[in-house]
Amino acid sequence: KQCTAEQTANDFYTSLEKRGILYGQTFQGVEHVWSKDAEALGSIRLAETLKFDSDQFQIHPSMLDGCLQIIAATERSSRDSHLYVPVGCERIRFFSQPKHQVWSHISLCSGSGSEDIIEADVHIYNESNESVAELIGFRVQRSTRLIKRILSNQDTWMYKLGWEIHNTPNESPVASTKTKNWLILEDNQGLGESVATHLQSVG
Asked: Which of 10, 57, 118, 124 is a plausible cystine mate for 132, CB 3.0–4.6 Å?
């Protein structure tokens, strides 16, 4: 199907930033996006700094994340200013290992049963149009302002910083009345004798 709306990488990530979604440089893999109604198509390229170990993954996490970012380009998601977070997926299958560039095709599913949930089928292809992976029934859920407020409240953290007062002994450990034995290595500069004299003076 022909896609009518088009966005460059700068347009795409600027629109996400306005919605409060900021990605680091290595996770800004989307190069170009086309969309129409409930579908979107995006070109994703792995960052140069991540290519050295990309063969260790079936698909690099940064590249997969970029494929899922294309959901934000669909009509329903693009006109919604809320933040969405992944909550589940019906089925995930991998077919081949891509190189450094892939295509991500998003099709929104109708009848998700909730206005707060967006469900989509994600199909990923390599440069030769061969299937790389598919995520069927991938779901993201709206993060409400209430949840944002709860997460930003320090009182809800799992830990907190607390200072406790501890009384310390007034006397110096060096000046303790307990007898101590010292091994002093002598030199020809008289340093060892000076150290012994000092230790005797402090007990």
From this structure: 124
